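re: ur question from yesterday

yeah so i grabbed the chain u mentioned. its 524 aa long if i counted rite. heres the sequnce exactly as i have it in my notes:
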Amino acid sequence: MIKDIQAVIFDTWSWLWLLIHTNDSAYAVAVTVTVLLVFSLFSWIFLKSKKISPPLPPGPRSFPLVGNLLSLDPNLHTYFASLGKTYGPIVTLWLGHKVGIVINSPVIAREVLKDHDTTFANHDIPVAGFESTYGGKDIVSTPYGSKWRMLRRVAASEMLSKTALDAVHGFRRKEIRETIGHLYSQKGLPVDVGEQMFVTLMNVITNMMWGGTVKGEDRAGLGTKVRLMVSEMTQLLGKPNVSDFYPGLARFDLQGVRKKMKVLAKKFDNILETVIKKRQEMDGKESRKDFLQFLLKLKDTQDAKEPLSMTRLKSLLMNMLIGGSDPTSNSVEFALAEMMNKPQIMQKLQEELDSVVGKDNVVEESHLPKLPYLYAVMKENLRLHPVLPLMVPHCPSETCVVGGYTIPKGSRVFVNIWLIHRDPSIWENPLEFIPERFLDGSWDYTGQDLKYFPFGSGRRICVGVAMAEKMFLFSLASLLHSFDWKLPEGQKLDLSETLGLVLKKQVPLVLIPTPRLSNPELYQ
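ran it thru and got these structure tokens back, copy pasting raw so excuse formatting
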């Protein structure tokens, strides 16, 4: 990240010099950018010298123009944790021309997500995120208010409620069984677990969204296109972008992030338009239901006071695609890696599966409530490896006081769930993977207890908890019930993490599956 920022600054000044000396027509643009940079410098000096009461939280020394950008580590969750040891539970960083606030304790997190929930109810959305969601029309980007409440209600009741998820159960089962069949064909061979789970979960998501609309070879080809585009979009969303650090420069798109995302978003929109048109042409002739059918029906029948526009409908589908595939596949990969590191945990879970499901049967979603150790494994995995270790950054709508310090309006607020989940004052042996700590049922992920909140808390808590839970549990149970797993000869297990858009393994998990069920027909 440091090299990226240095390159951007160097290239920007080089570009200015070239414009000023070679192109009269571009002189005005060059002067404008120069003025913006100078303005940023003087704004920084002014804000640093201004006496604020109460003061800003403590933090490391910053420099003109760049602030603390050059000292950032790409793995922000661990970098922020190290700052907490020096500066305390709440820290100020200068991210270019933007104030960053880091929350490293459950007490301060409660003030932000509970006591001042309404003030912090908006998210700080990067340029790439804004471009990929029809100008911020999705449930993540939309500011707190009536439009957001409408989207939240639609997602919670029409797409992700128990009734809605049960209605598309067959789609999930079909894709999981096809994955198990594919892995059976690869028995004895190395398999990239994360890649395989991403493909599976993307297929599950697209099947639930429009499985009754697009069929056969068309659906398979469409799934491939969607996977590739989601992969490209998540890379852009996780890329450091100078436009986010210097809002005054956003119009120039110096790194081309907005332009690249706009091209991808257009391709994605074309796909959604095609699928929507097919569904509308079916006009109720298809008996199999999917999310798209739910949404189109809702769009035509809902209260006109806060209508679900076609743009917002498509943005909800986009949320499902990006939020339902990459994060869950990463979680399954982490869980399997942790159990490879502690084989006794895998053995205990397989024994539970054999007791409830049996070796002459396949895992069904109806088995999941009878598998308490599987649930404990999931909760412990989310404790050690939360999907979004810093949540989606919040943005206060007004200046307020938190932890005895001033938090300026418009600042970018990071809540370090990763560190809170590893706090030794809360968790015994916090760096150890111990599912048993969750067997007594004292912890949940409703966001009420700010010592454990892997899906967030407050008004902006993740709306897809029920779906994430089903997909993680069903996937992991099927993998462990159907196969034993081992590392390829000579390979060592690596549990290191890296942070992009979401937390993932730094080194992909490659394992060899060995069938363990009694009848080969169970893999068909």
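noticed a couple things. Residues 310-341 form the longest helix (32 residues). also The chain has one domain: 125-399+428-523.
anyway ttyl
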